[in-house]
Write a sequence for this structure.
């Protein structure tokens, strides 16, 4: 029933989908983005209904994994639903519109700046303890961190349960697993390819990391079994990481999972034996470096644990009195104090910024939208970082041995941790969900897809090698939605429409479960057809394959996806110069291969000065960035889905020529993309030279002028460390204007503020503009509502009336002053009845 209903809903309008990208500009990474906003009003109505159906027929979500113990507590919260009055959103400020809203579609732009700021508020303090016994130091079994709001523990890798007392092992295995639904069993099929967490030596079963055996001088000696949980090993030992595994088992038989001669590891000069070994294994875990893995350095955690916790491979072990994913929360009685970034660890300073955690100054104000970042179980984010194979996976920044930060260029999905961090640090963040306008779900699904699920973790997010990595990610998102819905009232309050999810993997949100479609989906791959088959060149990502299991999944996997277009971009694209992947014909749906062939065969470079391929054109100097900046047109072709080419072109002042049928680009619904780009149908690829030659000079000039208006919205310079980098780049460019004369974009501005109108600001401006359209003003779905068509027509009218009435009420209330939330609650309650 629920299923059919979901399918029906699709034709009538989805919730918003945004698009996010990442790319590289002149040696620095760049993130970008786009949005598709669709009829939102309708979605609420529909959603409300389907949410009800879902709960009638029982919880449709059957994920495994984390069972928070206190689950379901919040399921029937109808009587707790209360809406706060919201001020009506501001009208666009004409001067902002004039100066800063070039190419904006609709009337979203210029409103945010015109809003009346609201009073700042002190963050809520936690007053619950996680006591099983009365020793507060033993809370959470010494390893976890107590959530002072919920009274349960956040547990690091190796532990689980409300009090972190349950052991959660991640064993090393010898090979790729064959069983997906069934419990973990080893050994598994050695014939399968893949990254395995093989280890014939000492396996740290918290995270499945391999070390030299303790029988050797540089082997790992674990803590004594009687020591309390979390005790560090007596000797850390040298790791034998993935790329360093022996090619022979202890039994002397050839093993299938390694290549290294055991002599190099265990011989007299071996890695595990000699003080100065002749052979060195890489130190791939975050936080460990040096030529012998002997140096401890800072590891990546989002917002660096607010300076009030120890970052353990991605998990924040907060100091006494502080708690939460990034240790932003305090328990009652703990005063706000600056963190270690102001004291013993100055290198943390650029990465710690938590306005939401501070006590506000007298008379301080804030601007909406207010965003609450969910404190999800670590299973869905921090644990992925702890399970990642190498430090350069899964993050947008990493520290080196000197605790200097760098960008892991080969990690394509940087917005996953990046946007999470931006929101944790945002002035728009609130620690109090009750006052939030929006709710962000920080799920590290791309990290799960690679490397975590690829390294044998299928039991956690049921999928199985019989399925694909993306199947596991779909299940992960379903679990998260189910968890959020059963632990907090906020999903049901607005049918999920004020929730925000991010999907950054290649084919974007194509595999997002139907239950999350009501939410705002930030993605990067604007594929618009409904339920498209996977277009990937990588088998493991074929989300459209069906997977059934007689016991665990008789209804099949695809039923979870519902029927939706993905509206989402693809990935690819390692840094400089696009990859053509001639050996992988499915990659980029063949567009890159086709153009490379024909341009070569017809001599496009000599005849038209059109270059298609990796590297510079023949005899043409300059790297990727310079070539782009010097070009009038730049091809924006697909990768394995999304590619950053479009945004790269925009940032270089080069007119993008989009060759991606049925795919929308960054900020599609917010900016007038045809005003600064061209589209060529895939069928016309062979005629690209003629098409481009026919573009009139005035059109070129107009599009270039428009690029100058929009480029900032295509780059995440509102992220402070990155904004500083770009600012420095522009300053440098101003000083050497002659050298860079060919570069048309970005224009070197003297008073450049990286946070103004960048991608992050654009997102906030847009979120603000649609507050009116959110359920904060919408009526809750009524049981037994009229048939859908009628309901739809009625809803449009009544909602408007109601919005007007509510604005009036708010005005009156403001005039009556001071009642604020209290009065609002009553009114909200009455409205419900
Ligand atoms: C509680 O703490 C007191 C000392 O503060 C100790 O004597 C007592 O044994 C503890 N009780 C339990 C159940 O741990
Ligand atoms: C350590 O190595 C020896 C062989 O030298 C092996 O028998 C033993 O099982 C290993 N111990 C562990 C903990 O791996
Ligand atoms: C880097 O940070 C770690 C963890 O805070 C610290 O132990 C180490 O001494 C620092 N190294 C340097 C070179 O500052
Ligand atoms: C490109 O050319 C090669 C060899 O000439 C051919 O094998 C391949 O199929 C062509 N690819 C496309 C997409 O036309």
């Amino acid at each position: 029933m629920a299923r059919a209903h979901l399918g029906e809903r699709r034709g009538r309008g989805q919730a918003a989908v945004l698009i996010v990208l990442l790319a590289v500009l002149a040696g620095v990474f760049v993130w970008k983005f786009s949005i598709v906003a669709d009829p939102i009003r309708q979605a609420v109505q529909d959603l409300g209904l389907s949410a009800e159906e879902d709960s009638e027929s029982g919880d449709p979500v059957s994920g495994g994994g984390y069972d928070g113990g206190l689950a379901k507590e919040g399921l029937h919260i109808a009587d707790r639903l209360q809406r706060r009055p919201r001020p009506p959103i501001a009208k666009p400020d004409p001067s902002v519109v004039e100066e800063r809203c070039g190419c904006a579609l609709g009337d979203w732009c210029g409103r945010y700046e015109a809003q009346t700021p609201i009073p700042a508020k002190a963050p809520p303090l936690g007053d619950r303890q996680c006591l099983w016994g009365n020793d507060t130091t033993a809370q959470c079994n010494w390893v976890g961190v107590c959530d002072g709001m919920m009274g349960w523990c956040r547990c690091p890798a190796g532990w689980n349960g409300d009090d972190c007392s349950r052991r959660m092992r991640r064993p090393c295995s010898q090979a790729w697993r064959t069983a997906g639904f069934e419990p973990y069993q080893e050994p598994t099929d050695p014939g399968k390819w893949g990254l395995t967490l093989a280890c014939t030596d000492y396996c740290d079963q918290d995270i499945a990391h391999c070390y030299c055996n303790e029988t050797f001088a540089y082997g790992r000696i674990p803590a004594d079994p009687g020591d309390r949980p979390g005790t560090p090993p007596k000797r850390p030992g040298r790791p034998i990481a993935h790329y360093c595994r022996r090619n022979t088992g202890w039994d002397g038989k050839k093993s299938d999972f390694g290549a290294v001669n055991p002599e190099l590891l265990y011989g007299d000069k071996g890695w595990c034996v000699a003080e100065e070994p002749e052979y060195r294994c890489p130190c791939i875990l975050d936080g460990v470096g040096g030529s012998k893995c002997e140096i401890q350095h800072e590891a990546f955690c989002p917002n660096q644990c607010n300076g009030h916790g120890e970052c353990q491979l991605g998990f924040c072990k907060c100091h006494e009195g502080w708690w939460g994913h990034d240790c932003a929360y305090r328990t009652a009685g703990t005063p706000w104090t600056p963190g270690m970034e102001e004291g013993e660890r100055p290198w943390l300073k650029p990465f710690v910024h938590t306005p939401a955690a501070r006590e506000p100054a007298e008379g301080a104000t804030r601007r909406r939208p207010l965003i609450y970042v969910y404190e999800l179980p670590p299973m869905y984010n921090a644990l992925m970082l702890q399970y990642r194979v190498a430090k350069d996976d899964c993050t947008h920044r990493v520290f080196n041995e000197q605790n200097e930060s760098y960008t892991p260029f080969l990690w394509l999905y940087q917005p996953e941790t990046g946007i999470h961090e931006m929101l944790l640090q945002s002035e728009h963040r609130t620690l109090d969900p009750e006052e939030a306008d929006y709710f962000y779900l920080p799920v590290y699904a791309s990290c799960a897809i690679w490397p975590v699920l690829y390294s044998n973790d299928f039991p956690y997010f049921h999928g199985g090698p019989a399925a694909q990595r993306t199947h596991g990610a779909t299940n992960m998102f379903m679990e998260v939605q189910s968890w959020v819905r059963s632990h907090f009232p906020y999903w049901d309050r607005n049918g999920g429409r004020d929730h925000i999810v991010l999907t950054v993997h290649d084919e974007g949100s194509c595999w997002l479960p139907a239950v999350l479609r009501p939410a705002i989906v930030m993605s990067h791959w604007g594929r618009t057809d409904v339920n498209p088959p996977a277009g990937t060149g990588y088998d493991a990502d074929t989300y459209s394959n069906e997977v059934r299991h007689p016991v665990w999944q008789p209804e099949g996997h695809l039923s979870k996806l519902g029927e939706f277009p993905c509206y989402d971009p693809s990935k690819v694209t390692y840094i400089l110069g696009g990859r053509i992947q001639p050996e992988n014909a499915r990659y980029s749906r063949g567009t890159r291969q086709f153009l490379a062939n024909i341009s070569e065969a017809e001599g496009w470079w000599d005849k038209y000065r059109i270059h298609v391929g990796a590297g510079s054109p023949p005899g043409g100097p300059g790297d990727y960035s310079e070539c782009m900046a010097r070009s009038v047109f730049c091809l924006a072709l697909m990768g394995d889905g999304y590619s950053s080419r479009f945004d790269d072109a925009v940032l270089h002042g080069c007119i993008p020529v989009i060759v991606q049928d049925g795919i929308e680009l960054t900020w599609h619904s917010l900016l007038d993309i045809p005003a600064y780009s061209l589209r060529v149908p895939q069928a016309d690829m062979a005629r690209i030279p003629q098409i481009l030659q026919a573009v009139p000079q005035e059109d070129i000039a107009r599009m270039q002028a428009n690029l100058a208006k929009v480029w900032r919205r295509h780059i995440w310079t509102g992220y402070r460390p990155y904004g500083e980098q770009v600012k420095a780049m522009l300053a440098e460019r101003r000083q050497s204007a002659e050298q860079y004369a060919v570069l048309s974009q970005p224009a070197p501005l003297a008073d450049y503020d990286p946070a103004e109108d960048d991608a992050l600001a654009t997102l906030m401006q847009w979120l603000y503009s649609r507050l009116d359209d959110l359920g904060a003003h919408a009526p809750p779905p009524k049981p037994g509502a009229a048939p859908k068509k009628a309901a739809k027509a009625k809803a449009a009218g009544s909602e408007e009336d109601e919005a007007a009435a509510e604005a009036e009420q708010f005005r009156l209330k403001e005039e009556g002053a001071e009642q604020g939330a209290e009065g609002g609650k009553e009114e909200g309650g009455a409205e419900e009845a």
Summary: The radius of gyration is 27 Å.
